[in-house]
Amino acid sequence: MRQLPRLWEESEQDTRYVQYFIERLSLDMPSCGGECSHWRPLIIQAMHQEVAVRQGVVALSAVMQERLAYGSLGIHGFDAPSRSGRYLLGLKKYGRALSSLQKLVRDMGSDRYLIQVALLCGIICIWFEILVRDYLAALGHLEMCLKIVLKEGPFGNIDSEIQGAYARMDMQASLYVGIRAPVTVPGEMSPVPYVFDSFNQAETCLMEEYARVVHLFRNAASFYRNHQPGCVPLELVAYTQTLQARLELWKSAFGYSYSCQKAQGSPQTSARASLLLIQYYIALVTASTSLYAEETLYDQFLYAFKRILLLARSSNACHESAAATSLVGVPMKMGVIYPLYFVATRCRDSAVRQEAIDLLSSAPYPDVVWEAPVLASVARRAKEIEELGLDCNQPIPEFRRLHSLGWAIDYESRQVRVEFHRRSNGMDGEWDEWEECLSW
Known about the structure:
Distance between the termini: 51 Å
Number of helices: 14
Structural class: mainly alpha
Strand content: 5-15%
Helix content: 55-70%
Number of strands: 5
Strand order of the largest sheet: 3-4-5
Order of helices and strands: HHHEEHHHHHHHHHHHEEE
Radius of gyration: 22 Å
């Protein structure tokens, strides 16, 4: 270790915010021999060397404290009557961080160190925008950083952990926004290992497979589902079967690896395993149904939906006690709120989907951009529409099932405008589309 030169004048208040950020990172790191992502110590290192990262950390820390203090936060403002000095300080520091980052990007060229600093600062900026719920701004930062990752990554100019962090954020954006496919999909399909050496390796492998599934779903699959049902090319069918087979290989390798580690595991290890398995089941169901328009295909995955709920309950039980000390809005975590929403809208077993809605309603904190109260209200209304006039155990016919749900959230009025899509006249019929405004 060496004493780094003091590159800027900093107030005692700024120093406290920096220390707070380091403490939050430490609290969120797994213990008992668990693994942590390498981008965290890289951010701490860059924070002590680059003013852009330092200013971004102060801004992020101030807004993070404000978010924890108020619990709820509107876009560029809080639910409280007036903005606090802490929030205004965060905005001021964030503006300076953006100016420093712009200069850094102009000067970085192909310098590996500066490229990585810019991407670490990008994580801070995305994180900040998520905390103030300006998701479009966060998406804009992400798109610019992904261009750097795609351009410089193949030349070895970016740490693998930083690339992995951006791959996870790329997946978050693809799942949430719904208008884009992930861009960090690996070109070649490497063999799935027989056994994983670590959770990080297993998670990286699953995210690669999941990215391929989402890429298929957002591109070719959506066309055949919505515009030409029943006309799927055989090569596309074969590709989806390959994806399903690779997911099964992952499940086998992970099951064996986890059984070896379970004896020496910790509650954190168990929770990480539960979250990974939840993502596996979502990826498997999506891959198996992505090419076909019939919503009744989801009925054959009732076992997977039940398993997701079981894993979500065990994961929540572990995390609920640590919710007060976890990082707020960290943009790399793949949590349980989206999978619960997936079950609540794709499973048509009334009891199972109601349990998913109940779990959403009681979720103690958001998963990055996924906010449980909003999605619970959307899922609850979808259930009401599909089950209207039916007995509790009566199957929902295809013509009553909703195919897609789009929404736009207004945080100030606490309302969400939802677009419902249904085919009442069969798979080759016209779309029935309408909008409703829901409150939460």
